[in-house]
TrEMBL record, chains A, B:
This is Guanylate kinase. Keywords: ATP-binding, Cytoplasm, Kinase, Nucleotide-binding, Transferase. It holds the Pfam family Guanylate_kin. It comes from the Bacteria. Gene3D superfamilies: Guanylate Kinase phosphate binding domain, P-loop containing nucleotide triphosphate hydrolases. Belongs to the guanylate kinase family. Its EC number is 2.7.4.8. The lineage of its organism: Bacteria, Bacillati, Bacillota, Bacilli, Bacillales. The keyword ATP-binding applies. PANTHER family: GUANYLATE KINASE, GUANYLATE KINASE-RELATED. It comes from Exiguobacterium oxidotolerans.
Length: 206, 206
């Protein structure tokens, strides 16, 4: 069934502390969506109750390094002496089943995914402080010059980070951020490139 | 307030008979959205109860032709001896108020809007027959060769039409089509170009 609609790979990232994990958990708990969650590979030892292929794919250091060399990871990072990474085969398998996959990762990881998988949809989760700062800058400012200056430095970095993303989702309230993400998934499934290419492929059969 | 978020112009079009009017009416009746409906100019005489500026902007033929010459219409067409068109000033005024505007027009009109207002979001409403045809072509076909051939001709034209649009919304069920359109509006408000440029403008204040 080569004409079946392939799932979307969504990459949810953003500055540390913005609440990526919380938003991702909320999406996972909502049974109304068709989102599947990435299972990572790791060289860390399994903890009590952790199942290989469910919580993680557990790998030896040699196996993991072999995967890196053979481009079998969408992204990877080392964290307190252990490797963590996203296996490309697993992601492709789920996408081929027509399911959407969501990957929650740090900014550096997201940029690695962009290199290996540019057709993914990149979502930048933005802190509400950015929105507040914006409102304050364009409204009547009540903060001191010094406070505003400091915030502007952080904000400028965050805004520069956005450039590599397709969407910016403000995490003002978790349920609102989740609704926006689900709307983006629906919209992306309606994108003309996607729908028209499916029709064109079907027409070629005749 | 130059940094206020400007509304989106949505152009809903598609082959004749696909149900553009019905979908647009359903969106209009739903009070949950922020969509505003375009008021057209026309040279047709007002009917009983029709109010200038509410149902139409009523114009003389001279006034209308003057608007065409001065590029004051996003699109226009002549229909049984009367002109109909969308006044660009009115649309810009509503967008500047931060409201989204939806315009329901024929394919030719949509292409005129694209010329005058390329930043609009173009939605192609697709007949469910296209989806059914696709399923039949890739599944087990039960129709005769002749029927399939005839449908393919129509489908090819429809698929070619799609090329100028940003999204394809299948009108399988009215409420589903409306949900998809609302999701597209939400997603477009999260587009990185849009959000990042608003932040960048706000930062320039300092």
């Amino acid at each position: 069934m080569i004409f079946k609609e392939r799932g979307l790979l969504l990459v949810l990232s953003g500055p540390s502390g913005v609440g990526k994990g919380t938003v991702c958990r909320a999406l996972r708990e909502d049974e109304d969506n068709n989102l599947h969650y990435s299972v990572s590979c790791t060289t860390r030892k399994p903890r009590e109750g952790e199942i290989d292929g469910v919580h993680y794919f557990f790998k030896t250091r040699d196996e993991f390094e072999h995967m890196i060399e053979n481009n079998q990871l969408l992204e990877h990072a080392e964290f307190v002496g252990n490797y963590y990474g996203t296996p490309v085969d697993w992601v492709n398998k789920i996408l081929d089943e027509g399911k959407d996959v969501i990957l929650e990762i740090e900014v550096q990881g997201a940029m690695q995914v962009k290199e290996h998988f540019p057709e993914a949809v990149f979502l930048f989760l933005a802190p509400p402080s950015l929105q507040e700062l914006r409102n304050r800058l364009i409204g009547r400012g009540t903060e001191s010059e010094e406070v505003i200056k400091q915030r502007l430095l952080v904000a400028k970095e965050e805004i520069e980070m956005m450039d590599a993303y397709d969407y910016v989702v403000t995490n003002d309230e978790i349920h609102k951020a989740c609704d926006r993400i689900q709307a983006i998934v629906t919209a992306e499934h309606c994108s003309r490139e996607r729908v028209a290419s499916l029709y064109k492929k079907a027409m070629e059969v005749k």
